[in-house]
User: Fold these one by one.
Assistant:
Number 1:
Amino acid sequence: MPSILDVHWHPDVLQHDTGAGLFDAADPGWLAVPETHAENADRVRNMYSALRDGPYADHVRWRDGRHATVDELAWLHDRDYIDEVRESCTDGRWWTRTTLTAPGSWPALLAAAGTALAACDAVLDGDTPLAYALVRPPGHHASSRTADGYCFFNNTALAAENARRRGKQRVAILDWDVHHGNGTQTLFYERDDVLTVSWHMAHGSWGESHPETGAPTETGSGRGTGYNVNVELPLGSGDHAYLTTFDEIVAPIVSAFDPDFLIVASGQDANQYDPNSRQCVTMAGFRGLGQRARALADRHTDGQLVLIQEGGYSRTYSAACLLASVGGVLGIAETLEDPLAFLPDPPSHAAAAIADIRAVQARHWEVLR
């Protein structure tokens, strides 16, 4: 029988108004029709609707989210930075060329972090083995005192820290958002109790707020050496590259790490129609990722799995890809038809990159030698 997924939701996440402009930058003043900012409330409204009214509605149980406390944010974020973010939500501020707060953003930021923690707590408390935090703004680019890539507080990292503080010994984070989870990497870079894995397109550093490159050679430092795994894939990579690296690199590493808690940073922006991506993953690919994450949870964490929403900026197709990944997690036999995907996915496209990733990780993980 398919499982039930507890979806944690707080309506305050819709209060973060990112406005309109030049895609995700400010309005230059010469556009006749400025475009809604890429990270907008509508993308999550569609995800909410897809889960509430879509084909898997009978497999979803809705749970209330909550606001995080400042003390919880301070587990990983500097208090003066937290205060600066809160103050910026009075009148609004551009933190980078793409990342802004606005009046009303503060409740949304607290709701995003708090709802991720609520989903984590529900699994830790034994209320459910499977929980999804449907939140925005995303968080995986935020580090201890840096806002970046639409992110202010690292929702996924806070959930991992929560699991550690509540007694879990080894937490694994699988991040399949299309962008490098640089904030999560930085927060745990010198730690061996949290394994961080990030699949992402090869975009490199994009400025002072994102100095990390996402290269496979960024493997951690000190005690954390080997515990940061970057699966950097060439532009145009599709289902084959994502699922092959999961099976041949990530799954063996996770099994060797043997986590007692598993978190997925669930972004859908690696899809073929995402305006913020140059990757080609289809609904079938996202279903495959969900199936594989669930299999790791069944193998290592007694089926306990927390998924936390990250990116996904195609306001309609991202919702379809979310459904596909949820179907994979739940083990639903029926496969949803993909009405859009058509791009080719030659197995050779990412072969050289995959070989390089494997070679780097084999230095740290005997299972890959």
Number 2:
Amino acid sequence: MKSISLTIVILALFGVTFAQDLSLKDLTTDHKVNPIGTDNKIPRFSWKITGSGNNIVQTAYSIKVASDEKFSSSKIVWQSGKVESEESILQSYKGPELKSGQRYFWQVKIWDNKGKESKWSTVAFWETGLLSHNEWKAKWIEMDGDTLRYSPSPHFRKEFMLTKSIASARVYITSHGFYELQLNGKKAGDQVLTPGWTSYSKRLQYQVYDVTNMLIKGNNAIGAVLGDGWYRGTLAWGNNWAIYGKHLGVLLQLKITYTDGTESTLVSDETWKVSNDGAIRMNDIYNGETFDATKILKGWSSIGYNDKDWQNVKIGIYNNSNIIASEGSAIRKIQEIKPVKIFRTPKGKLIVDMGQNMVGWIKLKVNGSKGTVVTLRHAEVLDKSGEFYTENLRAALCQLTYTLAGTGEEIYEPKFTFMGFRFVEVSGFPGELTVDNLTGVVVHSDMSVTGKFECSNPLINQLQHNIQWGQKGNFVDVPTDCPQRDERLGWTGDAQAFCRTAAYNMDVASFFTKWLKDVAADQKQGGEVPDVIPDILNRQGSKTAEPSAGWGDVSVIAPWTMYTVYGDKNFLENQYPSMRAWVEYIRKNAGDSYIWKGGSKYGDWLFYHPPVNNHTEPDGYTEHDFIATAFYAYSTSILAEAAKVLGKTDDARLYSELFGKIKKVFINEYVTNAGRVGTNSQTSYVLALKFNLLPDNLKSKAAEFLANDIKSRENRLSTGFLGTPYLCHVLSDNGYTGTAYDLLLQEKYPSWLYPVKMGATTIWERWDGEKTDSTFQDAGMNSFNHYAYGAIGDWMYRVSAGIETMGAGYKHIVIQPHPTEKLTYSNASFESSYGTIVSGWERKDEKIIIKVSIPANTYATIVLPTISQDKVTEGGKPLSGNIFIRDIIVAGNKLTMQACSGEYIFEILN
């Protein structure tokens, strides 16, 4: 309430009335646009406000919900009435209990601080799924005997008659393994790799498809083809497959509403038929797909298909209590890219260069004789000699094998696998291969792009490109470490390091809502958080795990980060038991010593090691118990803040006091009177400063030691996965922004720009995945698409361009750009829950020009780098005459002011 009151006080100062258009846009329900198949019984509504002029503030809103889009009086479900509130995000539905399988339409209108009333918004909707497990009438159907590894894909089908005209139809479906749903010969929907990856034994998502236009009055056919997927396929290393089960199966329910108001339901049951004598002979996430077009079951999901040789299905018996509606972002084919080059290697291999390390698959167009076999192998890089390099894929084959049917032009793309690759080796292709024959299909969770960053240095712009493509490739339903080798797991440490950057680049609210619930689901009874989520490295059903500091802390850091970015308390409310359980697990293990001994398995993962022939340069090693205790303190402090937000006053006090005790012991154990910290590594200083673990009188000295260490290494870092995300922030927070820029702009190893200079198009796992002599690091662990070190993107947005939030959700925005002589300009935009925030600076003609845009219904604290108000103008006029700016304060080398929504152009004289 304090921040809301502050908003009202500040905006009351801007009591100026101007004519302005007032409208609403971008309506969402629980962070999604017109979602179908939700199980939230209290949905929340958000909208963005637009209008001309400055100082647009909502003072009240009204929401109405109806069961038809015309909002006829008899169909009105709920009306909020006029609610005096400036809140325009995540406002809760407060009407009657929702019904299953019902589409609800909603509109909103608002009143502003000028007394103006908007028109009703455009109509948005949400549609409920099956709100009770008892509503599942379908049976699990399987293929008898289909329990072998790398088996052909089973196809399930059924024909049925509809004798009435159809008003609407929905399919509710989930599966063990991947599925593709078809009706009357066509694929339903545009999602791929469904039902996604969750902790299947506890949480199995179903999808809902509007198939109204796919059915006809008369004869119809429905079918589903399955793939091994994450359920039965290979996962991790060794002979690790069928972790969740060996039986592929599908559960399907088709609900049809007729124009006369009656309904009927078709379900998966004993009447269905199944065959695995189709074209998909093998499919596996790691190893690819084998497709024999001579065995295509032509028309198998259409009426009139002869299925007399198909067998009856087997009924699987399962407890459906684990079935949930889809919560995350759907996986889709997002874009297509064409090859940039086709060439022969020195050894004569035919290679296609896609120009971008991407994730997805190749769509092949080919014309040749029946039985011709075309093989596509995938790789991220070429070796020093220019040859196709796959050693870093380890045991993953990453191969597509296609046997031609010989029926003319054939187009093939896989259904049940994906690869991480830039280069494709093609063998067996009939005729001359051209760029027209291959298309790269980019696949990832469908998250709208929310952040843009650009500066005057093209290498930094390529770094930003690499960060975003690393996120695309590794956000395929789960935040994985890498998308190419025999791993592709939801490593918690990587997600912890990158989640704030991820939330700038793209809208990840739904993505993390879903994944964090799996974190809680797979958390052990004692509070341990496994290293990967979903947890497939521990035996299914195991009661314990051996966690690691900085990895398990994702259970606390990520929910708090999502709350900070989106202002959504549900992240904290949903995850609070998990957050608390993690801290209590550490507390139990640390005991009264408050030092978490043995709590870090991985340390500051992949920190800098000097070359073996360099015996003078120190490495970046940070002592493991130091790291564990630092993260113990940090998670405890965040938990205390979360408890405060949720009104859990006792917990807030308890964990605040616990943090104080940990900090006191930490200082005694790891900090000298001179300000030296831990092992004197960069990460030692970074964690101690970032986590507020130093006495105030030693912070400046510790920051100086950190900056001096960087300078002694010729402006190079030595941090690993845990220190790197905070490194530049700590420097900027402690007066060393110039040093942070030196690190960002460093082009020599180890640095962010070294891989860029080496031709990277995504972020690498190691600082030197490819060495300066063009040889590679250890093939056993050398991914060239690994987003963790891309966490620097967060600093580029928040510090260089200067977009920050005070409190949660960007209601109160902080604009504080940090110009440097090392760049000519730096610009960023961020699509917040309220609208587009813009901040950027440019050095031009002895001036610094700063452009700012603050969305309606928010306000900003703007901090400019100047020692005098007289040196600053806005729109060519002195600040003192601007009615939209108040509370101008100059202190030190900063000018701080409060500004209402609108656009501003500041000019600062050097």
Number 3:
Amino acid sequence: MNHTIPVNSRTLRRLALPLALATLVAACGDNQPQQAGPPPPGVTVAKPVQRQVTEHDEYVGRFTAVNSVEVRARVSGSLDGLHFKDGQIVKQGDLLFTIDKRPFENALAQARATLAQARSNLTYAEADLLRGQQLVRDKTITDQTFEQRAQAARNAQAAVNGAEAALRQAELNLGFTELRAPIEGRIGDRRVSPGNLVTGGDGGNTTLLATIVSTNPIYFEFTFDEASFLRYERMAAGGDRDVASRGAGVAVTLKLIDEKEFMHRGRMDFVDNVIDRSTGTIRGRAVFENANGIFTPGMFARVSVPASPPYNALLVPDVAIGSEQARKYVLTVNADNVAVPKYVTLGPLAGDLRVIKGGIVAGDNIIVDGVARVRPGQKVAPHEQKPPASANAAPPAKTD
């Protein structure tokens, strides 16, 4: 038995309104656009800098004086005077010390008297020999007597020669009482005060009075390892004379411990003839001008020497280089604005730039800013960086 529920028009209107609203909401949801993803990150790109570079090696060493002299007395006596201030610059020939001259003046006077006596004896002997020549012709004296007179004349001449030598030595000894600077340079402090007895002579027990070291020019000595020495020599044998080989005159630069740049220029002038067996290193030496006297013997410094012939290289900012375990890479941007990694072979630093020996070409767009925001294969928004005005000038390439 079926039962029919009567539905009036008011009931239908109440049911139709919610249904229409649901249909409208569904239609709006179908037409709503999907939410867009984040935009590609912005990066700065630049092409590699093309430049001629020369690799350099750095070594630590010390300054040494070209000339160093110990001032010692040539004669013994009492130190009578001091004629310099400790630590001052002295010129060659400047008077430094004086020794009491009185004993040496007496010795000189005695030597002169001895010479005068010897000359007097020589005059008498020569006159006696001259008389003997006539007497022996007249057979008044024997030949033996004549020979005795001739011998006496020769002995007198020898005595004069000996007295003259003694006089010259006495004059030298008197001159040695004045000790003068043998070289130009800076003198140290006095080792003996006036009034003390000093021991002179040519032996090893003489008294050290002071030391003098030359200051301009000045040597800089350093050591480098056997492998570097072989590398320098092989490059020099191949015709490149601008490396730190035995060929003199190679230009080098130097900086002191409180300086940031290699600002002092000098030249190599010596490489030792043996390798130290205990350290496996060989000694090199450069010479520098030191007109202002800032370089002091014993002072530490770093020297930069050429380690390769000049060559054309590509350079990128060192901050643009990433690491993947043992490999190094740079991120490049291709034609589709996608970041592509390229593995590279690194060379030395040249200021803030790094020499790239392989892995990129001159036309690559290298990401130089924003590397941390990019992953390989990610789309980017590149902005090209203008090359610096000084792109063709940079400090020497320094090997690590």
